[in-house]
Amino acid sequence: MATTPVERSEHAASQSKELISFEEAMEKLSRKERFRAAVYSMNTLLVQKGIYSPEEFEFQFRQFAQKNIR
């Protein structure tokens, strides 16, 4: 699976207080790590909202890789 499912609950909401702030994350992560975090976040949200499934993501990923591997 491409992402880790996250359930929305009161417990999850309370844990957000324990997370690093967005500003601190932006400051501490390298440019490459910020890009990876953005892709991970967007992919996770799209899967959670049912825009596409993890299997559809993986298919598109494999298709891109096959086209771009020389």
How would you sum up this structure, described in words?
The protein has 70 residues and is mainly alpha-helical. Helices cover 66% and strands 0% of the residues. The protein has 4 helices and no strands. The longest helix is centred in the middle third of the chain and has 18 residues, at 31-48. The protein is flat and about 40 Å long.
Spell out the blueprint of helices and strands.
Layout: H1 10-15, H2 22-28, H3 31-48, H4 54-68
Characteristics:
70 residues; mainly alpha; 0% strand; flat
Order of helices and strands: HHHH
Low-confidence stretches: none
Largest sheet: none
Computed structural class:
mainly alpha
The pLDDT mean sits at 86
Distance between the termini: 25 Å
What's the number of extended β-strand segments?
0
Number of helices: 4
Q: Summary?
A:
The protein has 70 residues and is mainly α. It has helices at residues 10-15, 22-28, 31-48, 54-68.
